[in-house]
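Notes from the 1:1 (GR / supervisor)

We went over the backlog. Supervisor wanted to see one worked example end to end before approving the batch request, so GR pasted a single chain during the call. The sequence is below; no edits were made to it. Supervisor asked that the structure be written out right there so they could see what the output format looks like.
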Amino acid sequence: MNAVFFNEYVQTSPRFMTDFTPWTLFVDTGIISVLLLLGKLMRVKIRFIQKLFIPPSLLAGFMGLALGPHGFGLIPLSTQTGTYAGILIAFIFGALPLTSQKAAKGDGANIGSMWAYSQAGMLLQWAFGGLLGLLVLNQIWPLNPAFGITMPSGYCGGHGTAAAIGQAFSQFGYDEILTLAMTAATFGIVAAVIIGLVIIKWGTKKGHTSFLANYDDLPHELQTGLLPGDKRESMGESSCSSISIDPLTFNLIIVAVIALGGYCISKAVSHFMPGFELPVFSCAFVVGIFIRKIFDRTKTSDYVCPQTIGHISGAFTDFLVAFGIASIKISVVVEYIAPLLILLVSGLIVTLIYVLVMSRKLMKDCWFEKAIFTWGWFTGTMAMGIALLRVVDPKMKSRCLDSYALAYLFIAPVEISLITFAPVAFLNGYGLMFAGICLAAGLAVLATAYIKGWFIKKQ
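Structure output shown during the call:
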């Protein structure tokens, strides 16, 4: 019976199937789920991994890459893992408008300085990557004109943006951009953790931290990722009776409907404008904003739980990271290893200088805590930024996330525009103009902050 089952499985496994079927998705999801559990077990049991705060999704992705079809081929992952990442990002961006807070009055200077600091950092990172690629690296190696923006799409954007950028270029036959962007995102997360912990140790020795006196005093649950009973929090509120529909189902279908709406708009645009296709995630974000406004006007927002939707988005992000890393084509990375290392290392150095210098100039209170948060965000993901912030500010007394959440209301449209129009610009030969606009816009944001008096004269 076991032999029959095994033969049946081998014949229908993704490695041996010529056509994609729902069972391919079933097997891929199951395998990645097993790897995520193994990653979590490794985080709990292996001291080295705990010290580096490596997330299980990253470990799962590495195992999928090493053991999957792009590695040793020991596990039957299909070649569709990169496609999954492109789909998951639509759900993540569709959920974003439902999790953001409304802008509040008061404390405008702190929110404004956080906006200027974060917005300028994002724009300047895109400008640096684009200009380095076009003006330096492309003059040495025969590279894709968009090679340079794989760094900011992977660093500041994370695996989600990397998937979106990669999918946009894949439609025109440039499949290597997806692998390069995913590699940048993976490299960025590892750097965010390792360098971030070094920065924290340096900050504690220099007395820059406001709430952490000694790095060795970190609570054990931050290292293992397992919370004791007295520190556990609710995942959200139940706004619906389970007799009618489960609250989790209710929140999940809202996100799914938004993502579907984004897909329909993208396909409608491409139908009426052949050759021009808006990214699904961008359309999903717009649909999410529209749905949020309808919910606010009709009081439906009272029954939508931002915390629950945030956890749904977080679950999609974990799978996206794992699938994204597993989809990296090692042969492409090896082919571009020299210019890629120059791009990624240069990006890290410039980002580190910006974070440590500008945070002191723009942050009146708890500059180090806000700097370590944005370091994690600018090189990895927002979740990584939060993880590093919790190391130095476990009780969130710096109110960094409060300022960031409100500032991000104004940052998100710019980020969406960057991701949407970057492929269009570079595919049509306007990459240099795009990078120049990012540079000018970033400097203009800093100039605005200076005029507004948000710069700190004495630190």
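Supervisor's comment: Residues 247-306 form one domain.
Batch request approved.
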